[in-house]
Amino acid sequence: MSDATAAGTDADPLGPGSMLHQLTRQTRWGLVATRAIVLEAAHPQIGAALITNSTFVAHPWRRLRNTVLSAQRMVDPDARVRQREAARLNRLHARITGTDAEGRPFNAADSEARAWVVATLFESTVTMCRLSGESLDGPTLDRLYAEFQSFLALMDPYGGKLPPTLREFWRYYASVVEERLENTEAVHVILDRLFAQVPAPPLLRDRPAVWAAGRALAGPAATAIVVASLPEPLRARLGLAEVPGTRTLMHAAYLSTRLATRVLPEAWTRLDTVMTMLDPAYAPQRTGDVPAGAPAPEGLRALDGLRRGVSKAGALLRLLTPDPETPTAGDAATRSAARFFSEVLDQTGDGHLDWPDLAAMAREIATRLDLDVQDEDRLFAAFADWWRELQKELDTDGDGRITGHEYAAAAAAMAGSALIRIAEVLFDVTDTDDDQVIDAREYRALFRTAFDHDPGGGGEQLTRGEFVRRFLGFMAGRRHSGVYDQMFAQS
Fold this sequence. Notes:
Elements: H1 19-23, H2 29-41, H3 44-53, H4 60-74, H5 79-94, E1 97-99, E2 105-107, H6 111-131, H7 138-155, H8 166-179, H9 185-197, H10 208-229, H11 232-238, H12 246-263, H13 271-278, H14 283-287, H15 298-320, H16 329-333, H17 337-345, E3 352-353, H18 355-369, H19 373-394, E4 402-403, H20 404-409, H21 417-430, E5 437-438, H22 440-450, E6 462-463, H23 464-475, H24 482-488
Antiparallel strand pairs: 1-2, 3-4, 5-6
Helix pairs in contact: 2-6, 3-9, 6-7, 9-10, 10-12, 13-15, 18-19, 19-21, 21-23
């Protein structure tokens, strides 16, 4: 029996006994997701949506975190969790529309494009198994394909479908690669910039020199591994030459990930464990449902051990490397308009502010708080109104976007009525007992859920007015807030 089939069978195609449920919780799933995103980015519809609306360049770790959580919700043992996540994704994708550089319309909810997303994940999973030396016999491959078909049916019940049989799928896949994929800007951003410039994960954010040294080695290697694994027709179309020795490197990477899953304790190779090591903020999302007094899961016990090891290594590292400059009290309280613009407002990292940046903020809030349809609509409407206010007040040259200079020249105009409505949506979803006061319990729940931060303290209570005032202070760039940075500014 292969590694991927160890979970056994289950009547529920996406339940806890499914292959997908097991695979999406393994660290090696990262190889699948990384390769698939390149294949997706080469699709003109998806590539245009990524380059104009996505935050994956400016905030790659945050995007990875959200993607992992979403994928795991889509194969959650509880079918209601899956349905809710699919509905949430459908709403968010339907809001991502526009035209590409050649004037062609795109829509992230396009059925053909969504079918291609699932197709790339399936084909990349098969490729991972093949390059790892893992055999998938006929029935196992059929089962895996059926699970991906169920995944697409859940995500797009009235739209795109994958071909009914595997034989037809491979013909479909080859035809899309050869006839539909393009040399898009998004592909080159991923291969040329993302791996080379990816910021440090939260765990290493205070050690930029260490991260830069590691990235200088790992970035080119990661790019080479992804390129070597792509279909030959696509590599030729993208003008990607295969460097000698990269196939050996690719096979070594895939084989080592499979070996790790077989040799190391399972808890150490779980994606949750690695994600929490990279970003401690990930942990509350995965452990919040553990009952009080219950023994810690094996993964958490292993994680505690790894954390202790990391703490010891960090203490040694601090002896060997100088500490970064400590910010002054004034720097901690405020930030410059230019820094706030680049860290918070410019969500897509393209150097200017336009609607996709504010839409990305709205998506992040809606995702973190798992808003229902009504609150999500209120939130997006408020952000849309805020964008119109910003255009009117700050877009001095009328080009439909706002530069950092235009923002800095009139930052006081940030706190308009629409921004107040955004704060009020946050207040309403936090004030669960509708008493018009956010008590300590509600306050902690908001920041743990939305901002991955324990605000500490005890009995602080916030009226609507005080809550709005604090939010406006942050969004206008006048007041630094570590907790809001967790949502908007951290990579």
